[in-house]
Amino acid sequence: MDNPFIYTSFASGKHFICRQHDSDVLAGLIDGGGNAYFTDGARTGKTSVIRQALYTLRVRGRNTRTVEVPLLNARSAEDLCRKVGGALFRAVASTPDEYAALVREHLAGTVFTFDNEYYSATGEPVKVCSAPQRGDLEAILNLPRRITASGEKTIVIFDEFQNVMLADEAEDILPAFENVLRTARAEGAKNFSFIFTGSSANSMKDIFEVHKRFWGLADRIALSEPQEKEVIDHIIRGFLAGGKVIDRELARRIFRNFKGNLWYINHFCAICDSLARGYVTEAILADSLFRLISIHEPTFTSTVNGLTTFQTSLLKAVAEGHTKFSSAEVINRYGLNSSANVKRLKDALCKKEIITFSNPATGEGASIIDPLFEFWLKKYYFEILH
Question: Is the entire prediction scored with pTM above 0.90?
Answer without folding.
Answer: yes
